[in-house]
Amino acid sequence: MPELLEVRDAVAGYGGGPAILDGAALTVREGQIECMIGPNGAGKSTLLKAIVGILPLRKGEIRFRGERIDGLQPHEILRKGICFVPQERALFPRMTVRENLRMGGYVLEDRGELERRIDDVLGRFPILRERASQLAGTLSGGQQQMLSMARTLIVRPTLVMLDEPSLGLAPMIVVQMFEIIGMLRAEGITVLLVEQNALMGLRHADWGVVLDLGRTLFEGPAAEILADPRIQDLYLGRRSRAA
Amino acid sequence: MKTAGRSAAGAGDVAAVVAARREMNQRLASTRREGRSWGFAIGCLLVLAALPLLQFAGNFNYVLHMALYTFMYIAMASAWNIVGGYTGYISLGHNVFFGIGGYFSGMILASAGISTLITAPAAGAVAAVFGFLVGLVTLRVRGPSFIISSIALLMIARILFDNWDYVGGSNGLSVPLSTLPVEWAKLPYFYAMLVIAVLSIAASYRIKHSKFGLGLRALSQDEVKAESAGINTKLYKVAAFAISAFFVGMAGAVWGEYLTYIRPNIFLIILVAANMVLMCILGGKGTVTGPIVGAILLIAFNEFFVAYFGASELNILGTGVIMLLALMFFPLGIVGTLARQGRLPRFLDWD
Amino acid sequence: MSDALQILILGITLGGVYALMASGLTLIFGVMRIVNLAHPIMIICGAYVAYWLFNLYRVDPILAMPVAAVFMFGVGLVLYQLVFAKEAASAKYSEMTVLLTFAVALVLDGFLGALFSNTQRVTTPPYATDAIVIGDLFIPTAQLYAGLISIALIGALVVFLQFTRMGYAIRATTQNRTAAALLGVNVGFISLVTFAIGVALAGAAGALVSFVFSFFPAKHWEWIAVLMSLVVLGGMGKLMGTIVGAFALSIVAAFVGTYAGATWSTITFFLALFLVLLIRPQGLFGDPIESA
Q: How high is the ipTM of this complex?
């Protein structure tokens, strides 16, 4: 049985510039929360963008349930069941919270079902329900992040990819973020997240991937990665003790 | 825990990862040439300065005229490049300064008889002041709005000068012809334009290699980040605009006397600005030698076109087509494309 | 007093026409961030379509309007695919595309000039020189009809944007292109269609304008500045702003034109632009700009 998402030998870059991704690989298993860590410029966001089709792949392949998806446009990839929440949150600032949720269900054919799901989501996020008619651009950072993540529930994807969901958020809000991620997993949604905050990210994940220099250096159960002294030294900022 | 199968960066060795990182950073750093071909530059200048000697061999008025015309556009394109190329603000009405310089010096010449060769720097200064004041207003907005404001500025100037009787309205100003004998009549203007062109290129070169130029480049890429890095973006932008206006104004002053008339439908038509822009695009926006290459190419093409098809609407069509092709297939211009491919010859590499 | 009312009506009807002329421009900018400097020359293309239909086949310009619109829609599709589709994906987006539209404007200008020369043209249906007289008021029918039809068309445009699925997608793409793409909007297709619609609007406006103003290829430079000023005034990409701005400025320009002469009437638009840049750079309805 093929894995949910498989990336092999990915090479990609911006414009005509140098390759940011240089042979990156990734495996995502269904039902898991997978966390990708690595330093700035390693290519984590680039990899997510390549998967979702915003950035073209120069070499390599990406397979979703065994089917190749590299080269598809973002709107086609969404229809396959992959949802992406970028760092910039991708909200429509001049639409209300409710309208943003409605846009979240753009690909749904049944308008009645869409309205039902919107009501369901608003029910689960009381903070959003209070602000249902408020313009999304006026929400706080944490509320915007909540909205973009809640929006993924409308379309009920198979895989949700989050690019640095905790970026710029207060620690207490970050805790809420990871609760929402747990909520997604409870819905049966697989989560792939990129986290600058490696400690938090790996603590909440089942599986971990370390990306550096455009390549995958380490992969394994999140707890093992957290405990590995080499990882601690390179990415978690702890001096390695002499063996 | 397994390490990823295809990783080549030393399976798990910390020191190897650090070393690999350093190597990658070095690879990404750009290579820069050492040393400029000063010999070539000085050689060119000497040849150009000696060009009028041809007059001893026969009537080469046409050659001198074309050279003069080319120097003028080299000066203006280079000046435009400071704003459009280095700072990233596309001005499609830049010849408003051309008109201001031309009219200023023209009025002085017509009423007091002082040659533009003397008043040109003053004309440039007037244009620069005007550019500074206008820039304070128009440079507050980014890209598209700024472009529109530059066109609107040109239109306002055109309408104003067309209706201002003091400067001759739509008939413009006439200034006295030169009293020199025909073979040498072009000489003063030839050298004046050559000097202005050299000054303009020199300014462009010095700016590019200065802290000022670095700041301009920063703000052309991300103004907000440049501002938060401590660069006074407002001052930098407006200063670049004013400096650019200075050279365009000087060129306008000298051209006015050379033509012996200054009219709105010559100085203030958008085609002049379009030419400036196109020359920079063809040659390479943001490079030092780009505007020079572009100017020479475009003028050569124009002459060829007019010779075969006659001056007409087709001229506008031709300019448009070249611009379209250049933008679609050579957006970096000749110098830019060669540089990107690493094939830029030394005599063109002054960046 | 009836003088003022007279001028007001003149301003309003012209405002409607200018609003229509500028609406396609705003729409294209909103979705693709392209300032289409070729928009005015496309209006003139539409005017030529109406002109030749009128002079060759006696087709009333108002009836020629849908023909011009459909024709220009096709032109827009082809133009987008040939010239702009490639740019849509690249980084140096805004600058280069503006220059591209400038080049297209030059090409169309030269092409029309070579084909039809620079003689001034105007279509002359019977109502072009008529007027409706109500008491002291003298309302030229040309402007009135053009104004009313323009307002109707803009209304249709607004309805389309607010209530259809595609209009919804267009509005989303205007606000956040990446987000729209990630939510399933085919932004490439939307850009193509929006561009074609914008050009079609230009064509329709051209047919109407053909009996209101006299035109020739080089006239588009004058309109560029006027229409662009409207778009900046209203707030780049904000349709409502453009419409309000068009009416407001046309009324002011009508008064200026009557009391100070026609030349100053045109300058009104440009001066308003500079005033806006000075006081409120983002325009009436625009989003605030981050830094000065």
A: 0.83
